[in-house]
Design brief:
Layout lengths: L7 H51 L1 H31 L5 H22 L4 H33 L5
Helix pairs in contact: 1-2, 2-3, 3-4
């Protein structure tokens, strides 16, 4: 009485295609991990080099700002690496690592914009102040979203 015997070859092809696509997906994730790790290490080396050589040339403040910019990018790379690792391990995409990347990137832009705004006057300063205000609002929205996601993850699952 089962009519599934006629659809079994299709099931075998579907299963084979699923395994092939899963393998391809894992290879892509692995390559993404390698690139993220290489990028993070490169940025760390650059930050160390800039710190060692830039203080005499550019001054402490400009060097520190550049190093902070590089280190914040390292944190973005590491958070993305963590997100990819979690995706591989749990076979699901989580929002929290991407919200953290958004928070870090927004803080990075706030630092850079604030540092550049100190040298501006007139209309350019007004535009920088508006940008800082928008970035601050975005940071607040991301922080609330991150809080809500973390709160939701801590709740017991509904039956």
């Amino acid at each position: 009485m089962t009519s599934s015997s006629s659809s079994r070859p299709t099931d075998g092809v579907a299963a084979l295609a699923d395994r092939g696509l899963r393998l391809a997906e894992e290879v892509v994730y692995l390559l993404a991990c390698v690139l993220l790790l290489a990028g993070a290490v490169s940025l760390l080396v650059k930050a160390g080099y800039d710190l060692a050589t830039g203080i005499g040339e550019d001054g402490v403040t400009d060097t520190a700002s550049g190093v902070l910019d590089s280190l914040l990018l390292v944190f973005v790379f590491v958070e993305l690496l963590s997100a990819v690792r979690t995706t591989i391990r749990e076979h699901q995409l989580l929002a929290e690592p991407f919200l953290l990347v958004g928070v870090i990137a927004t803080i990075k832009e706030l630092v850079v914009t604030g540092n550049e705004a100190r040298d501006k006057t007139g209309e350019a300063f007004d535009e920088a102040a508006i940008e800082i205000g928008v970035l601050s609002g975005l940071l607040l929205v991301l922080a609330v979203a991150l809080f809500l996601v973390r709160r939701k993850e801590r709740e017991p699952e509904e039956a």
